[in-house]
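Dear support,

I submitted the protein below through the web form. The confirmation email said the job was done, but the results page showed an empty box. After a refresh the structure appeared. I'm attaching both so you can tell me whether what I see now is the final result or a partial one.
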Amino acid sequence: MSDARRRDHERRAAGTGALEDEAARLQALARAGELRPGALEIAAYCGHEAARLIAVAPAPTSLEYWVRGLERWGTTPLVVAALAAAALVAPAWRESPLDADPVERALEAARAWVACPCRAHEDAAFAAGHAADRVADGAGPAAARTRAAIQVASYAAWSARAPQPPTNDDDEPTPVTDGDGPAQAAAFAREVLGSDERLWPAVRRAVLAWALDPVDRTTTSPGG
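What the results page shows now:
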């Protein structure tokens, strides 16, 4: 899309405030390849009112169901959702006496994978998730809230691993598949926070921001 046409859409949407004009702006961006594949559907799924004029989204029944439903658009929105949940519960481990460095590194690895979903970052995130999980194991039964918060971070990092069949070998970590890991991250985050009141809006905002972030047409792939 030309700069002039883009500015025209932006002025019209900002000037009228009408959902129809914002929907037209989003559609123009999508047609020009300036939004990632499925962006409008994801935005509608996140509750974006203008996007809902363009795409149909099912009504959510629970947070875990909603998070798991993101898997239809690939792994990245699942990891973005889990990272948003981890950001909300981070004070639980940061304020604990445990060594939080492995947990922070797990989140850094997951964010690095979102920025560049290559095999090297996938492997690094998966390994970092298990290092964080060992910190959770050391929290002990008296620190259930801290342990649950760390497991949100672990699942965020694990979820970067491409879906593959699970293993029953106790010596080999079982990969998280599809949307199960991020949904589990959401459940642990609710356990820490006590409700979905802050959690669900934060997760939706993060996924929506990722979906509508302009992309480089030369590097975008359907799985990203």
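Response: this is the final, complete result; the empty box was a page-load delay. The longest helix spans residues 76-94.
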